[in-house]
Amino acid sequence: MIEKFKLKKFINELKSIRGRHTELVTVYIPAGYDINKIIGHLSQEQGTASNIKDKTTRTNVIDSLERMIRHLRLFKQTPVNGLAIFSGNTAGQEGKQDIKVWSLETPVPLNIRMYRCDQTFITEPLEDMLQIKEIYGLIAMDNREGTVGLLKGKSISIIKDMTSAVPGKTRAGGQSSVRFSRLREIAAGEFYDRIAEIANQEFLAMGKNLKGILLGGPGMTKETFLNGAYLNNELKKKIVAVRDLSYTGEFGLKELVEKSQDALAQEEIIKEKKIMQEFFKLLSTNSDKVVYGKADVKKALDFGAVDKILISEEFLEADAFEEQANASGSTVIFVSTETEEGAQLRDLGAVAAFLRYSIEHMG
Asked: Which strand (E) or helix (H) includes residue 163?
């Protein structure tokens, strides 16, 4: 989570910079590629840049390439996952120059090679690394409604919400109970086929990225669906939890995730919610064990009293607080704003802490 938070911050810093012309240099070096070949290529680009008509742009590109080449010479070889490097004039005022270089050893293997001069740095390959590759499929259903969705990290999304044509339990006059039951059974089977068709189509396409499937719903419908010949057999093997629910639809998917916490114990959504719920419980029952807000957390850090620090991804002073927390042996936990609890932390001042001991009467 810390690595993801820092990558996100790195990307946002790059995206905040805009060149006056096409003078910002982006280079991606894939894993295993000879870094000396890249240096040779950039030296050639310096020669090409001397043909740029606009004097300021020409100077900024040539100088950015020079700074980048000097930086690359610090590496004996390309880092194991690859290297992203950026260089450009950040002065923002016409006629002024402040060339800066950023580089990042990518957290996952980089498989593209790129050289680009543009008005902005090219960050899409890094943004792709932020996307959570492992995904859970969600199915919440009963005889009236079926909802197929996805859980990506902490985000729940609906793929398809369907309603059935299954008759109610009260039969029309003149129909025998056997015939009516048969009609309901046929209509239910057709509805299960529709749910399975969407699930099979969407989930199978994800291949190894689909880590598991959560299935739930009121009553016995989910078991009938699971035990019948509806869902693809490969997908059946990926079902990690079957849960009784009170709802279907959007609320059903949220309830399904909540009730599958044991199966998702290692996933970010559950870890984040659990730590925040623990914090709020202490805040209401034993408030001298926790603090929140910039001033109080800073005071606790100064006293060395912080056991765990919770830092919102939107906290502007995250680096300084993280550095001080690391120096005092505190556990640092970055919290997104994608969950309800994470949003509450942001609204409480974007930083909070569990304490080793009370600081109420100190200082």
From this structure: strand 155-163
CA distances from 353 to 147, 320, 342 (A): 38, 15, 14
Instruction: Kindly state whether residues 23 and 91 are assigned to the same domain.
Output: yes
Between CA 268 and CA 363 the distance in angstroms is: 37
Where does the pLDDT of residue 170 fall: very low under 50, low under 70, confident under 90, or very high at 90 and above? low
Residue finishing a domain among 130, 151, 182: 130
* Residue 352 CB-density burial (10 A; 0-12 exposed, 13-18 middle, 19+ buried): buried
Amino acid 133: pLDDT: 66
Check: CB of residue 354 under 8 Å from CB of residue 282: yes
Q: How many CA atoms lie within 13 A of 96 on its CB side?
A: 5
The type of residue at 273 is K
Number of domains in the chain: 3
The residue out of 77, 104, 130 marking a domain boundary is 130
Strand order in the sheet with 351-355: 290-292, 351-355, 306-312, 331-335
Q: Residues 116, 87: contact at Cβ < 8 Å? A: no
Structure confidence by residue, pLDDT tens digits, 101-120: 999 999 888 989 999 999 99
Among candidates 349, 156, 134, which has minimal Cα distance to 250?
A: 156
Q: Which domain holds residue 184?
A: 135-259
